[in-house]
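Extended Data, panel c. Modelled sequence:
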Amino acid sequence: MRHRKKNLLAAALLAVAVSSPTFAQPQAVSDEALEEVSGQGLQIVENHNASFDNRGPLNSQNNNLDSVQVNDTAMVGTTVQYGGVLANSAVNTTSNYLYDAITPPPPPPPGGNKIFSKSFVQENYNEAVNHYNDANNSNFEEEIAIAGNLNKETQRVNTVPEAELPVEIVNQDNNNNSVQLNESAQSGSSGILLTNAAASAVNSAENYFVANGVVSTVGIQNNNQKAVNFGNYAEASGVESIAAAFNAESDATQMINNGGTLLEHSDTKTENVIIYDQDNNNNSVQLNDFAQTGVTYMTLKNIANSSANNGINVVHVTGDVKESSISQNNSQTAENHTNWAGAETAIAANINKERQIVDNGHYVGDRTPKDPKAQIIDQDNNNNSVQLNDHAQEGASALILENVAISAVNTGINLMHIGGNTENSELTQENKQEAYNFNNTARGDLFAGAGNVELGTTQDINNYWTEIQKQDNNNNSVQLNNNAQGGVVGMVVKNGANSASNTGINILSGGEVGDLYTPSGDFSQSLVQRNAQTAENHRNEASANYEEGFAVAANINKQTQVIRNFTTDDPPDLIYIYDQDNNNNSVQLNDFAQSGANSVILSNTALSATNTAFNLMNAGNITNSNIAQTNIQTASNFNNYAMGSTAIAGNVEFTGSEFYKTGEMEVGQMIENIHAVIPEGMEQNNNNNSVQLNDNAQTGVNSVVVANIANSAANIGFNMMNTGDITDSTVGQYNQQLAKNHVNYADASDFAFAGNINKQKQYIYNCNCSSIDGEQNNNMNSVQLNDNAQSGMNTLVLLNSAGSAANIGVNMLNAGTVSGSSIVQVNRSSAENFTNRASGNTAIAGNGDFGVGITFPTLP
């Protein structure tokens, strides 16, 4: 009986966390029970009588909650060494310089003939913690520990017709935990580092050392960084103990009502709704117009609701390095929305943290065909996404350029530029990186629950009786349009949405800072280049007593997008769709996006776990040396682990709602075109877990690595040596890679279930009254390249991955004569995609996609 009580109590506690907006108030629970809970962060905007007494429409309204918005010509042409626009974030920016001239990096070569000797140490220790709660009662025999963030990211915008007047929205921006730059914002600006961060934890650290020569020196450059965003830790002890660690919103994070029924509506209204320009960004990064065009920085970052670290180490020696030891190291941990709970009953969860609802319907009563229709001229709905439009970041130049939304991201770069010879010296370059995004761990004796849950559709867009001129709906996606990032120049150019991502680069060469092609001089003794990377996205672990405990580890409703374009059956009438892109867990590049880009690593990542590592040695002759280039990579995406008497591990889409026409469950990607016409020359793209490149996207790109990755686990390891003769030396190049995508493990003494349910489902319904005179592209777990996409590309590694587990390991040695030497090149790779393992008295393992009439068995 006690077990049943405890399980019911755990369920009740979870229900309270997601259903009661007053939970964070002092009277809701006692101080002892509350421990650490962050309370309300709520924005409510009510627009009534949108047009009243001939006063005109809603011309311009900006609604920002915990967001960064830069408009017009703000910060145009600004010159700043270190700058940032920050909202509700924890940010550290630190740098160390050791060279002659006080100028922005990259530093110029030193004047004269300055030789450095003995030692130098340059270190940055950064810890950025944002919205972190710790409730630890394990040493006090307290029975309850609660650590959480409740209703911290809720935005409601309600625009409704009144007094028989139309609703006209000329320009409205609704940003929730987002970064939005419009017009010419920050264009032409320059400096060392610029960070735009909203609701994030961000660390940036740089070390620069410049000399003409180095003799008998021990040099150390080190960046030690930890960024924690919305993390919770709860631990309690005792027979009746309960621990809960959570981030929760009582309903959808962002709810936008444009004269619809979502927040308020009267059945008697018949007014028109016209949306000329509306941007709805939830946990997203959006750059429009000429934002950040022509900017020049060493590091440029736009970060929304994420944890992000970047570390740069630069050693620039124009002459020789003799009898010295120089090491460069980046040690980075990024944790975003991670929870840990331990007690007899333990719950660790993220609930309703990534949910967006937009209702563009404007009538629910009787209609006639002559009634006016709503009109959407231009609407962008971005949920956990990155969207760049127009000329955003065109011609931008940066060593690191990142646009990141609701992710955990690490970037480490170690550069040694030695113009002369390296004699009897030891050089070490290393990146140790761990990125954890939406990971939960629960350890309970009787009950352990770990998971990420949306109580409904992740992105729900309702277009009722609505003409659509242009609408982009992005859910957990990256979308670049027009000339965005065209001609961009950077060592790392990264766009990441709802992902865990690591990028590590180690380079030894000659020339100026960032030069890959000019070789260094002759080399002797030792070089170690190493990247150790772990990326985990939406990974859950639940462990309970093996004899009587109940364990659940799951991701629920994290990948569902529902788009409804419809009119009523009675009276029958048609609506027209001219340009609509619906991207769910996808990467889409249109027009000339990223055309002519020049980089070392160019990546677009959506809802994935990715590691990218690049080691380069470009030198002259090698004599009596040990050279080792190593990449060790683990990528885990949507993996779950459960152990107990009853163990359930899985990924499930099960919203509970059905398509009214057929009774089909609304899960995966649902596109409902009822009485909808796509005219000739017009287009609708529906991408689910897919990569789609259109028109001239990525044409003429020049990059070592180009990766477009959607809903995957992917590792890319590249070791490259370009040298002269190799004599009496040992050279090793190694890649060890493990990629797991949608892999579940359940280990139980009684009942075990491991599976993926409705995770690869796309349902497109074009009714018999609909007409596709133009073009409709429906991509499911697919890669589609159209027109001239990726034409004229120059790259060594190209990866377009959709719904996959992928490893790419490359070892490349280009040398002169090799004598008296040992060369070893090894790749060890393992990839698992949609794999399930269940062990128990009753064990079920599998992947299933179900249609009409699915029912689930009652859980034990």
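Residues 1-40, 852-860 have pLDDT under 50 and may be disordered. This feature is highlighted in the accompanying rendering.
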